[in-house]
Amino acid sequence: MSLTRRNLMQSGGYAAMLLTAAGACSRPDQAASNDLAELDGVETAARLKSGELGPTEAVEAAIARAERVDPQINAIVTKTFRRARKEAAAKGANAGLWAGVPTFVKDLDDVTGVTTRFGSRAFPFYKGKEQTPLIDAFLGMGVVSLGKSATPEFGLSATTESIATGQTRNPWNTEHSTGGSSGGAAALVASGVVPIAHASDGGGSIRIPASCCGNVGLKVSRGRNPMARPEDAVGPISLAVHGVQTRTVRDTAAVAATLALPSSESGLAPLPLVTAPGKERLRIAVTTQGLAGRAPDPAVKQAAEDAAALCADLGHHVEEASLPVDDGLSEDFTLYWAAFAHATVAMWEKTFHLPRNGLAFEPFTIGLADRFEREEADFPGAIERLQAVAARMAAFHETYDLVLSPVVTAPPPEIGYLGATLDYETLMQRLTDYVQYTVLYNVTGAPAISLPLSMSPDGLPVGAMFGAPLGREDRLLALAYELEEAKPWAGRRPAVWG
């Protein structure tokens, strides 16, 4: 399929209704605002389309915000401001539904002619010669990329603290982590630099930063979007999908509908443009038990309980339930993650004719690659067990429409707690304790969303995660609209704001 503007419109189902949706669910605070940082992406796109706002004006304002904010949060690793100005000046009325909306691309994906560092010292001067279909589709919406957002090395960690590019800091409290691996994207959206930013999720990398930074973060179903890199799949399972960080449900819904492939290609039910709360009352299973047995911190447990109580107050049937998975899922997922690190390191060794070393790679990357070599004989069994989880969860969803859980076990940790210079064993144990919930949906391929429903006693965001059966992003988004109305987060602003 050639991802032209025409079939992007078609593949999004109801994406052409974007501007209508902007009016239908217009928020009074945005309609009256003259501060472009306050506008979400749908409102920005609507003003651009109407001519009230020009692409150059929108991009220049975002660049000014980036220059003010980034010295405090270190979320941008490559600036393409000059290129963005040229693109903005060339934007016309037919340049896409989102023509002129400023954004960033995560630094794990190539943009033609722009450096991709992968958060690593191993690739300091690499520039991709062509973009993937996913990035073609994302930029084909008409957005203007201002550069590359920070990520941990190869996206392997749940914090964005890279030896190569430094520590990305949380706008709510710069002594704390943004989460990872889409931490740069999350920080740039949370701080008001841009309304949306490209992100990806191979183990929680959209949902974890959304929780840490107070954003909305949707991981779509496997196959929903165009392919990113084929090499993201190790063996017969592809864990990673792509999406965005946003501050509003309607932005998330609009981008998801715009990027969605037609059912003939995805094999999934069509994804409509969801614009309002749903009327269906849902059966929601609640669990706070982590996949590796780690109980959440009190603030996180309270946030999940508060979200459950809110759903019950809205008329949904909510009850505690145990998921049909065991502790082995965490170990099997880790071996898969190790296989990805090993493939990356082995490719580097073959390309540069050098052995892996601590000058090119971080201790965690080397530790994962070494682990795979030690445990490679177990890999086929791990893949088989991971594949079996999807069927068990599909059966579980015959009883429950959605699953509510925490996103991670604790509020955003302090910078350094998951730092890149830690030895492999220490960091692996801390990450295993922290990332207990998100990987399930990467394994099954089903969608899940993090919503910024709570704040910790220390003033840090704490998300709640809802998971759905494969292909039911519409159900997640309808509930998200309902929760956003019932417990609005639009007025919250972090300490670092554009």
Automatic annotation (TrEMBL):
Residues 57-477 form the Amidase domain. It comes from the Bacteria. GO terms for molecular function: catalytic activity. Pfam families: Amidase. Belongs to the amidase family. This is Amidase domain-containing protein. It comes from Hyphococcus luteus. The lineage of its organism: Bacteria, Pseudomonadati, Pseudomonadota, Alphaproteobacteria, Parvularculales.
